[in-house]
Amino acid sequence: MSRTYHHGKDRRIRVRGIRRPTDLRRLARVLIELEAARAEAEAEAEHHKKPKRAGKGKTNGRDRKAA
């Protein structure tokens, strides 16, 4: 049926939802948490990406070449 069919007495308006004002505090908190999680994931990826250097660890008093 076309939209023009519904003109007359029985025409009803349906409300699908009520728009509430934006909660800026909640939005800011979520954005800060999102940025912190992104930074943490980036730092962890950077940590795993770095190669481990040989010769920088403890040798317990032994020379690495002799072992």
C-alpha end-to-end distance? 88 Å
Overall mean pLDDT score? 78
The computed structural class is: mainly alpha
Round the Cα radius of gyration to an integer and report it.
Answer: 32 Å
Tally of individual helices: 1
TL;DR of this structure?
The protein has one helix at 24-49.
Write up this protein.
The chain is mostly helical and 67 residues long. The protein has one helix at residues 24-49. The protein has one helix and no strands. It is rod-shaped and about 95 Å long. The termini are far apart.
Task: Give the SSE map.
Elements: H1 24-49
Supply database-style keywords.
mainly alpha; rod-shaped; 39% helix; 67 residues
